[in-house]
Amino acid sequence: MLLSGRTIGLLEDDPIMGQSLQQRLSLEGATVNLWTNGKEAIAGLERTVPDVVVSDMRLPDMSGEDVFRTMSERKPMPPFLFITGYADIDQAVRLLRSGAAHYLAKPFEMAEFLQQLASVLPSEEHGDDEALGRSAPMKSLCRTLTRLARTRSTLLLTGETGAGKEVCATFYHQAAPDPGPFIAVNCAAIPVELMESELFGHERGAFTGAQSRHLGYAERAGAGTLFLDEIGEMPLSLQAKLLRLLDERRFHRVGGEKLVEFEARVVCATNVDLARLVRDGKFREDLLYRINVVSLEVPPLRERSEDIPWLMELFFDRAVEQFDAGLSGISPLTEEAAKAYSWPGNVRELRNRIERGVALALGTLLMPADLFPEGRGGAPVPSFVSLEAARDAAERTQIMRALEITGNEMAAAAKLLGISRTTLWEKMRRLEIRTGEHH
Fold first, then answer.
1. What is the count of structural domains for the chain?
2. What angle do CA 347, 351, 354 make, to 5 degrees?
3. Quick one: pLDDT at residue 87?
4. 160 and 268, same domain (yes or no)
5. What is the pLDDT of residues 231-270, one digit of tens each?
6. Rounded to an integer, what distance in angstroms lies between the CA atom of residue 64 and that of residue 43?
7. Which domain holds residue 210?
């Protein structure tokens, strides 16, 4: 599909036009965020950065130009494709000179619209948008982090515990042109009385027991990345000093007089609602504004089930190597059981269950009982299934893998499976496998 895996912001106040474009873009494989006024669009763009914004020029509360100029003051800035009436073409040309990607005059053909849209989409320099997962949300997140890595904007990652915020922070760091050191700090794991010294360092004699100079996390990060995990746990007394660090880009070591320059990009992460902490008086509002320059949410695993088989294989291969286990693979029934489970502990729970299962498995395949020894999942894990059900599950997995390897070429997939193309079609129809389902 033309726009597969892309995220598009669509700003259109006409409900018929908006729904029509949203439906067609979705059919082309895109994830579409539809906004009906400028205020709604600006709020949405502050939460997440799409690959491109398609905007009508005339809106009920402001113009598309107002939205464009508001967002041009912030980084990163997605390309804008404007939809305009003939009376607004002069305005559209003015916007092109200001950095807009293109404009399209009404009325237009859908094929022309899609062609223009494809032409303004940014190319993916790093190529692999599946580095964080195969689901559409994670591909979109991967592309956004890749674009952000070219800037040094402060980034806030939100999401449930175990969803993969540190993995995303590491990817963002590694995608930078000049990564430098990656320093991860768990704000909840450091005692309050030691946190200032750990973050900013201290000079010899700064306090009892300070027998030599100690370089803190901020200094050790150099020109790399300082990752502050569980930022909501940072004590209020230190929040003011962090705010000053971000504003002035320099700091003093504890007990020191010399200013130390701070060069690192900053990524913060939290699994709590920081706005609620602000209301409760536990988090500084000005610090929230400062770290929330760009905010991205890492979705929980239950909302991206397409990633489960991919993650299972990744963790399985690592665990087999770690434990030198003799397992040859993952049973298709285990994969089905994993897909049915709600994963309250997210990716971290999946990794831990795979590691435990590989370490303790008695057979040559990782079975449902190895993954869920307590005998439960999203649905009850059967202790025994019929031969027909086991055969169907195995055939379905093997067919989907063959299609993936051959790029959905039916003849090549049939040859790889050792069956005729007609037989392959019949099995796909019976097992309800659609071409492209494995993507």
1. 4
2. 135
3. 58
4. yes
5. 999 999 899 999 999 999 999 998 888 899 999 999 999 9
6. 14
7. 136-297
For the residues 415-439, what does the mean pLDDT come to? 77
Is residue 381 in a domain?
no
Write out the two tokens for 39.
């205020």
> What percentage of residues in the chain have a pLDDT greater than 90?
38
| Three-class secondary structure assignment of 324-375 | CCCCCEECHHHHHHHHHCCCCCHHHHHHHHHHHHHHHCCCCEECHHHHCCCC
What band does 325 get if pLDDT is binned at 50, 70 and 90? confident
Helix (H, G, I), strand (E, B) or coil at 47: helix
Other CB atoms within 10 A of residue 100 CB = 22
**CATH, residue 12:** 3.40.50.2300
256 and 346 inside one domain:
no
Round to whole Å and give the CA distance between 389 and 331. 12
Q: Are 80 and 59 in contact (CB under 8 A)?
A: no
Strands 259-261 and 250-252, bridge-based pairing: antiparallel
- Asked if 79 contacts 123 with a C-beta cutoff of 8 angstroms, the reply is no
Q: What is the mean pLDDT of residues 57-77?
A: 83
Contacts of 68 (CB under 8 A, 6+ apart): 55, 80, 82, 95, 98, 100
Distance CA 179, CA 265 (A): 10
Neighbouring residues of 115: CB distance < 8 A, sequence distance ≥ 6: none
CB of 227 closer than 8 Å to CB of 267:
yes
The predicted pLDDT at position 125 comes to 46
297, 318, 350: which is the final residue of a domain? 297
CB of 145 closer than 8 Å to CB of 168: yes
Contact between 328 and 385 (Cβ < 8 Å): no
The residue type of 427 is K
Question: Do 219 and 260 form a contact (C-beta atoms < 8 A)?
Answer: yes
User: Up-side HSE of residue 426: CA atoms within 13 Å toward CB?
Assistant: 5
Choose the weakest-confidence range: 140-154, 160-174, 298-312: 140-154
Which residues contact residue 139 at a Cβ distance below 8 angstroms, ignoring those fewer than 6 apart? 5, 129, 130, 132, 133
